[in-house]
Amino acid sequence: MSNKDDENTIVCRCEDITLKEVRGLIKEGFKTVDEIKRISRCGMGPCQGRTCRQIIMREIAKATGKDIRDVKVPTFRPPTKNIKMGILAEAAKGERK
Amino acid sequence: MKKSAEVVIIGGGISGLSTAYNLAHMGCKDVVLLEKKSLYSGSTGRCAAGVRQQFGLEMNCRLAKGSCEILENLNELLDYEGDIEFKQGGYLWLLHTDEEVELYKKNVQLQNSLGIKSRLITVEEALKIVPYLNPEGIKACTFHQKDGHANPFQVSQAYAQAAKRLGVEINIFTEVTDIKVKNNHIVEVLTDKGKIATNKVLNAAGAFAKDIGKMVGVKFPLKPERHQILVTEPVEPLLGPMVISTDVYCQQEPQGSFLMGYGDPNEPEGVDVSSSWRFMEVVAKKVCKILPILSNIKVVRQWAGSYTMTPDVAPILGSVPEVEGFYLAVGFSGHGFMLGPMTGVLMAEHILGKEVTIPIDKLDIGRFKRGELMREPAVS
Hints:
Chain A has 97 residues and is mainly alpha-helical. Chain A is 44% helix and 7% strand. Chain A has a single domain, classed as Arc Repressor Mutant, subunit A (Orthogonal Bundle), CATH 1.10.10.1100.
């Protein structure tokens, strides 16, 4: 992935963020997944970063010369899968009985 | 990193960043800001993004009104290439008891006297603003159209970029390890990346402000406590205002997600940003009751941040009598983001010895010793 066309690849499908945007943010100085997530919403959508997290980590590793194993993994936040509010609300009622 | 600075700011959240910008804007460009993690990684970046002027304490009302007016023009003021996503969809307070109605009537009177155009409205009027509201058990509401939402990441980033352009040095992943005081004057800040000689330090460390205070031997009555939030998938626009009561709050962000939370009275003191399953169930139950339409919307994520509480739920702003050159912008009790833009103006004016736009003497640390507590009644 080095030519310009490839840079239009969508990295975060929930928020429509391209590889070019991610690389631009890293160049601007956002050098952790958390910082990129907060400023761009990359990884904040329904899939919670399942697609983009690895790609961003790889891009950070490439740009900073780090081994990908040394790139900080962002906090995994519950729930693991999306859950309807109504199901949670019912569960809370059940607990009270 | 610079070896010396006129002012060192500890904390890269909204209070620190807006003070940094305002100092530079007022001509004091020799400023270094230190943040132990990344910018807005603490309470600012974890907050509920709400911005309101409906408070029950005069000082909070004035700070909030000032902040809102700054936010209205912030993109232009800071020449920001992004967008702070400011939305003035209002705050609708749901009042469930006669006592609440009486108290909020007084709050509205106070707000109106300060130029905040909030009003007490009937349930029928509230239903016109939020057609999906379940009116069960609601006696009346207060509403203020100019309250609303701003994106904490974008607001903070806008301040950070503008401050940098004016010459402020921002050092992230730089932890303050100690502050040296000689003859009751600040002389040096030590960090894990080196030392900075300075005579002025602003403590804007949020939930960690107490730890910074210990370094100069100053104690504050601050209690950080965990507050959790969850966010749903984005959907079409359904809800204009933040819907809030003493029990729970919920707002639809401009991007379409609903953001919600409540204050758990059993939360112990301490900096804890872990998430609990119980929170998710309880908040879903509370919100589905007032806004049943949300039952079919999916939760995508939850997180937590700290409210740094003071005994009277009002912030501590100003100087410290024991240590010359040590300034405080701490204890925002859950409202640091929404009060941040005005806090920055006032703290910059105070640090530079200028006349302050809004007198902050009532918010000084000394009020706790003098027993002059203010007690903010309108907190969720």
